[in-house]
Amino acid sequence: MRTLKVNLEDRSYPIYIGSDVSLDNELYSKHISSKKIALITNEQIADLYLSEISQTLNAFDLKTLVLPEGETEKNLETVGKAVEFLSDNGIDRDSSIIAFGGGVVGDITGFVASSYMRGIKFLQVPTTLLAQVDSSVGGKTGVNINTGKNLIGSFYQPSAVIADTRYLNSLEPNRLSEGLAEVIKYGLIRDEDFFKWLSKNTNRILALEPEIMTHLIERCCQIKAEIVSEDEREGSIRAILNYGHTFGHAIESLTDYSVYTHGEAVSIGMVMAASMAERMGMLSQDDKTDITRLLESVNLPTKKPDLNSNDFLESMKRDKKVQDGEIRLILLESIGRAIISNNYPNEILMETILE
Ligand SMILES: NC(=O)c1ccc[n+]([C@@H]2O[C@H](COP(=O)([O-])OP(=O)(O)OC[C@H]3O[C@@H](n4cnc5c(N)ncnc54)[C@H](O)[C@@H]3O)[C@@H](O)[C@H]2O)c1
Description:
Bound molecules: nicotinamide-adenine-dinucleotide
Number of domains: 2
Number of strands: 11
Largest sheet: 7 strands, mixed
């Protein structure tokens, strides 16, 4: 097992990573001070793993809420239902909640934990690769409303994250690739050696070798933890975690969220951002080729679909990251070095969109 720490003064917490770590009941006991606890999950994860985790948690009086499956459940109605469930089951200020699932369950549960009784403790037990390397770490919680994704939420850190590589074996292949898009992003923004390691170990990653996946998750969480420790509330540097996302969000939105997964759209977005940096004379052509090759080798798309360029630009302007109408872009100076820029020629952005 590997352990790392997210350093945030009194909100610091450990991340435990490894095969079978979720079966270690002492890890939970260390971070939970009550007998009664709640666990929130969804139907699909419950079918696969609820009996196993309930067994691990048998020293506690466990109350389980199983939500229907899907991103559409990430809404205020579900938050209301969850809060009623906690209250009906006598969950109090000293209790903890366990978020057991992917990013959807994690985001809902974190938000519920941050607001129930003005905040009670919660643990993340992420079960998708995306949740293990990204959404369970850093404290962003929230749900969607009709006018936008994640528009209501909070920054609220968990007491611990327990990331078990074993859960990855039951993921659908496209969900694995989706997580790998974020993994590759960490190499691109912060760590060239990690990018090279990923390129060298693609087959072992796709085979989900436990030691390889433990290292991979550990390095991603280290990078995210470093960035979050520097800038918890995304005042500045945390924005580099959005590399490829502004282009990606436009692709998702203009294809009605029905053609690409989020990770696939981000993959195309990362290549678009690399093209833009290349046009600006920042990134070399070889680097761009290596980026495209690695994404394709883990079954991610890299080619922009044919979309209207004005619609594309308008969609980018609606992104949450826009400041005073200026689209802030994350661009690469080289693999491993990202910058935040709103000082780029608009014609180059347009050429990139038209490519
Ligand atoms: N809070 C953050 O910082 C942050 C960061 C990135 C994304 N997100 C959010 O995360 C969500 C996406 O997360 P996700 O990609 O994990 O999606 P998800 O939670 O919808 O999970 C994807 C699918 O995999 C299933 N699943 C989960 N674990 C499984 C397992 N071990 N085996 C088989 N199937 C399993 C789920 O039931 C679901 O059908 C979005 O709502 C996004 O907004 C949040």
